[in-house]
Each structure stands twice: as C-alpha cells, then as structure tokens.
C-alpha cells in the first residue's frame, strides 16, 4: 500500500507501458502467428499498467496524499516534473479505468486484425497512447506537458489511420492531425504567454504568480487555452475532426478517444481557470456557458440525424462535452461573483458528468464495436433484430443508452440533474446578464436532454429491435467473453454511480476543494469534512431515495399488471398484416425515425435529398423500374469555415512559391538579406 | 349415415327471425339490440365483415346499416377495420379459392370468444354460384360457422332482426350473470 504513494510506482506504471509497446514489436518478429502474441502482449501490459494506475489514483484519493517529484534532465529549461494531486488523481483514475477495460476488450477485438494488419505496430501505439494520456494530467511543467500532449496526439493519429486499407480512414486521420495541431498552436500561445508573464515553465510557479498578471494578458491566455483545448474537447465549431476520427479508430480506441481523451482537454481548462490563474472575470464563465449550450444542442441534433453508429456516438460526445462545459462555466461565474459554495457545487456537477460520460460513452463505444464486429458494418440501416442474436451486448447497450439519456437510476441522471440545479441557482442571481445566459443554458439543456433520449431510442431501436434487415445482421453471433466482460463492468459502474450519487458528489467536492480555491494550496485533501458534506448533500439531493422510489414503482406496476392479467390466457399467433406480408423493409429504421425531427430542424441541419428514377419505358413514364433516394446532411462548418480557410491558405502558398525558385544562389541571397536585416535591427534596438 | 349425422351436428343454426320481430320498427329493434349488447358485450359490439367472393349485394345491404336511416352505431354496433378488434365476423359469399387463405387468417386473427355469422345464401350453400369451379360452396367448409342469415341478399332490417335473435340465442347459451362477475 505504501508503495503506491511513492514516485517509484508511477515510474513502474510507465515502465509497463514501455515494455508493452516496445516488446510487442519484437514479439511480432519472433512469432509468426499473424500477430496474435503481439496483440496479447500489448493489451496485457496496457492492462497491467492501467490497473496499477487505478490503484495509484484510488490510494491517492483515499489517503488524501498526493505524489510530487522531479526527474533531472540534461536540458536546463526542461524538467520532468510530476504532480499527482487530487484533481489529477481523479482524471488519472478515469483514464486508467477506461483503458483497463478497453484493454480487456482488446483481447477479444484483436482477432479482427489477424493477418490483415500488424498487431505489433498497433500495440506499440496503443501503449504509447495510454501512457501519454496518463502523463497529461500529471505533467507539471509546460514543456513536459506539451511533449505528453503531442505524444498523445501523434499516437492517437496512428491509431486512427491503423486500418489503412480504407481510404476514408487516411482522410479522417489527416483531418484529425490538422485540427489537433491547430489546437496545439493555441495551447502553445497560452503556455508561452504564461511563461512571458511569470518567467517560468513550471506550473507551480504559475500557481504562485496569481494576481500578478495583467488582465489583458490573462484574457489572451484564457482565450487561447479555450480555443486550443476546445479543439481537443470538440466544442462546436472546432468539432469537425471528432465524427471523422473517432469512428475510424478500432472500437476500443474510439472508446478511449471519446471517453477519456477529450476529457484531458477539459481537465486542462479546469486547471487554467481554477488552479493556475484563478479569479477569471465573470465574462469568461458566461462565454464558456454559451459555448457549452451551443455544443450540447447542435451536437445532439447532428447525432440525431446520423445513421453511422460510431459517428452518432462521436456527435453525442460533442453534446456531453457541452454539458460538462455548462457546469464548468457556471463554476467560473459563481466563483467570480463570490458564491464559492455554489461554484463548488457546479464544478462537482461538471466533474461528475465527466466521470459518467467516460463510463457510459466507453460502454456504448464498446457495444458499438461488438455490433460492428458481429455485422461487419457501421450503418444502422443494415442492423435490426440483434437483441435476439446478441442478448448480452443488447442488455449492456441498453444500460448505456438509459444512462446517456439521463434516466434514473443510472449515473447520467444524477449529473445532469446536478447541472440543472447549478444552472437554476444561477437564475436567482441579481445580475441581468447572468440571468439571461443561465436562462439560455437551461433552455438548451432541457432541449438537449429530450433530444438525447430520442436519439438513443432511435439508436437502440434501430439496432436491436424489430427484425434483421440484412443477411449479415441475420447471421450475427454474440461476441466473445473478453468483449462482454468490460461492458458488463461498465454497466454495473453506471448503475452504482447512479445510486450512490450523494457519496460521489461529496467526494468530488472534497477533491475540488483540495486544489485550494478556498483554502491555501496544499496536497492534502480535507477528507475529514467528507462525512459532513455527504450528509449536507443527502438533504438536498435525495438520489438514493429517488432510486428506491423508482424501484418500488417498478415493482408495484409489474405486480399490478401481473395481478390484473393473472388469469389471462396468452395465445401466440402471426401478426395481423391486412393481407400484405410484413417484411423487414416495412420497419422503422434509423433514418425514418429521425426524419420528422430532421424536418423540424431543417433550418439547422439542412438535409439534402437526391432522387433518381428509372422507368420501364422512358417515353411513357407510367411504370417505375427502380427508384433511388439519397438523403444526407450538408456540413455547414466545412463549407462555411474550413473550405474558405483552405482556399486562402492555398492562395498564400501559391504566392509563396514565387520566391521559391529552386536556385541555390537565390536562397543564399535570402539568407544574406535576412542576416543583414536582423543585424540592423539588433544594432538599432 | 355417420357423415350425414356429423354434417347435421356441425352445421350452424340457420337464423330465420320470427315474424313478430320483422314487424317491429327499426327503433324498437335497435332498443332491444342495444340492451342485449349491454348485457353481453358491455355496450359495444364490433363486427368485422369479410367479403369472401360475394356478388357485393350483401355488402350493399350491410353498408346501408350505417346510413342515416338505420344508423346502427347508435345501438352500439360498429364495423371495425381489423379482426383484432372484432367480436363477430360477418362472412359473405361462397368463399372463392383466392379468399380462402385470407378468410382463415382473419378467423385466426379474431380474438376468442368470437361469433361467426355467414350472411346470404351464397355464404350458406353457394347460392347461385354453387358447384362452380372457383368456390368452396359454403363458409362452413373453411371455418366453423355459428349462425347463418339466409336471403339473397338479406335486407338491412332482416339482418338487424337476425342479429337480435343471434344475441338472444347467445344469451341463452352463456350464463351472462356468472361471466360478468
């Protein structure tokens, strides 16, 4: 136990990932078994490392004692400085948990790749990806952080393009690479401005420099951080890489990317606004809330119109990031107007939703992976009736769908309820502008919750209910136990986190309080106050009683139904079809379910429709031979924002080509001129 | 001999309403029907009509039942669109081969307990279509029939009077008071 709280355990953890990644490449060379051993090696060490990470984060949180240490490097301005405090341990724990379960899933999923792709290479990047994910929350030095951040982006890029025989994956990877570096540029701007203002790359020095930075510089830092990390988190309109890149990756990597990678960006926003430079003006809180409302609402609308199961989940991630930002923004606002306890409450809502989203989104992505594995397609129109063929997957998927649609007693309900509460508190505020913004946020969240429920009714219904619509769906088989186990654990967690809401909220408040918003900065957490906080929250958040009540209602209604129908005889016969045989073509599919909603929101979604008709006789157009209708959504962001930028860049690049003559003498002249100008400038200054 | 006896045993009752019933006016018939339906069906009798190869004469008469003159809906009788909602099946026509499967499925789709009534001479024994190549001759060759209303076609009033007789017979054969408990 003592060992887990030492730097050695953290280093051992990264050693596991190192052995997992490098070892897998050699293992693949040694065995010629289509990469089976390499896959087991890679996923196995990733599992070991993740379990150790989970143990470390649990013991850090449980004993209330952080880990901080520095490794020496040869570079003067570059320190490998680690700091695992309460909030970092929370994110560290989420990442470890999801990656441990994803690795178990990987044991079953890897047979997908036998002989087709090199599992040694996959294991290399998979381990590197998880290791860098775990480095991000504990890196305590700006340059070290950037290293980890870049490693995370690059490793995940290679995982996105891993199935490189499909051309769309390469395209998705390119877009992801571009967008993630666009974000990194802004992250670097924020970091270098902070360096300029504080004179240090150490995050600890930034914490110490509170209040010494001019508001203008602080504002620019916040703005750059919001854009930079917002790109990674997938806020609208910087989200365009999410629906491309998340589906392209193998399913357990999608779970990691969607479930936890976007959370690292939210973690850094949290650090920036509350840990590094606390005391952001109220306007930033309102801006974050507005961004959150927009992302939540548009995210779920796009998810609703989607027919590709993994793209749908990616858009739903955009929505949930929006909901988390609502809590975060409310926290910033409350903190700036001095309502510290409300700020704590809102942040607890945000962190709770972060945890919940990590759990149910990875559950859903793993479920989607199983469905894709069983049917061979991501198109929901080709599913149907899978509940009979994949009963366990369907059950876990249902739990995930209920949780993400915020149905009690699952965890999504608790955190969305808390977010609503914190927004309602804001409505009672005296200032008009806060009232208006919170009002907008509540409206958007209400709308989002409703649409989310519709969206997941559609997803579950189109995938698992009715009858199979294709041969592939008809011949689907239940996936292996390796793939079912993690889903089962996640479903159970989703339930437990839902019914133990008061405990979770109280401990989250303790974690947030530990970063020193109210108390002096310390690595010790006030867990002694935990019991009192728990009792306080049980009074205003009777989630256990709600869950109990709901259980009772369920039992009573089933009992009543049984009592009324106990003497009824059930006769099973064919469905009455009015003489027209019922077939799978008559089913309500994903597209037809969302059609009416898409029609309502056609101003935002802008659906396009093309139809081609072929007649038996072109001159006498009475009998239609075949008819084809294509419906799709236009992408206003790509058309309105990214394509014009691309055109401008292309124009600038072609202008720059003029001075690129390819003549060596010419380049020497350029160098010479630059040198002279620099010298002149230096002497002048 | 056995076949004859079996046929007699299985053949449905032909309902010929008493003369006094036919002499009643529609209003009184309706009141009687309505009180009978209240007892047997808690106020509403749903009928699904199956045209199994009839000449459309029976259908015209049945349609007339819903017009403003007879207006049987006020007595609690409705023609419904799905056999799933029906208490009673009206079958007309000598059952053409093409309608056989449809009639069987409709019968199977009607929830128990159900009353099957063959309407018109065609439905009882083939009528003018008897022994032609495309028909079964009678509804009872395909599905069990409980009652038959003769006539080619029976007039709306005959149908109403017969319906009252059918309900009275049903009332007699089932102990209504015990079933409502």
Count of DSSP E strands of chain A? 4
Seen as an oligomer or otherwise, the chain set is: heterodimer
Q: Overall mean pLDDT score of chain B?
A: 85
Largest sheet of chain A: 2 strands, antiparallel
- What structural category arises from helix and sheet content of chain A? mainly alpha
How large a portion of the residues of chain B is in β-strands, by DSSP E? 5-15%
Terminal-residue CA separation of chain A: 60 Å
The ordered H/E elements of chain B are HEHHEHEEHEHEHH
What distance lies between the first and last C-alpha atoms of chain B, to the nearest angstrom?
44 Å
Structural class of chain B: alpha/beta
User: Tally the helices of chain B: what do you get?
Assistant: 8
Question: Main sheet of chain B?
Answer: 6 strands, parallel
Q: Low-confidence stretches of chain A at least 5 residues in length (pLDDT < 50)?
A: 517-528
Radius of gyration of chain B: 16 Å
The average pLDDT score of chain A comes to 87
Q: From N to C, what is the helix and strand string of chain A?
A: HHEEHHHHHHHHHHHHHHHHHHHHHHEEHH
Question: Helical content of chain A, roughly?
Answer: over 70%
- CATH top level of chain B is Alpha Beta
CA-atom Rg of chain A in angstroms: 27 Å
Unreliable spans of chain B: none
Summarize the structure.
The complex is a heterodimer of chains A (685) and B (181). Chain A is mostly helical and 685 residues long.
Characterization of this structure:
The complex is a heterodimer of chains A (685) and B (181). Chain A is mainly alpha-helical. Chain A has helices spanning 7-30, 36-63, 86-109, 119-138, 142-160, 167-198, 203-208, 215-233, 242-248, 251-276, 282-304, 309-336, 340-375, 386-389, 391-404, 411-427, 432-464, 471-474, 481-499, 501-513, 530-540, 543-565, 590-600, 602-605, 636-656, 664-684; strands spanning 67-71, 80-84, 607-615, 624-633. Chain A has a two-stranded antiparallel sheet with strand order 1-2. Chain A has a two-stranded antiparallel sheet with strand order 3-4. In chain A, a hairpin with an 8-residue loop joins β3 (607-615) and β4. In chain A, α3 (86-109) runs antiparallel to α10 and α4 (119-138) packs antiparallel against α5. The longest helix of chain A is centred in the middle third of the chain and has 36 residues, at 340-375. The N and C termini of chain A lie far apart (60 Å). Chain B is an alpha/beta fold and 181 residues long. Chain B has a single domain (2-179), classed as Rossmann fold, CATH 3.40.50.12280. In chain B, strands 1-6-5-4-2-3 form a 6-stranded parallel sheet, with helices on both faces. In chain B, β4, α5 (97-109) and β5 (115-119) form a beta-alpha-beta unit.
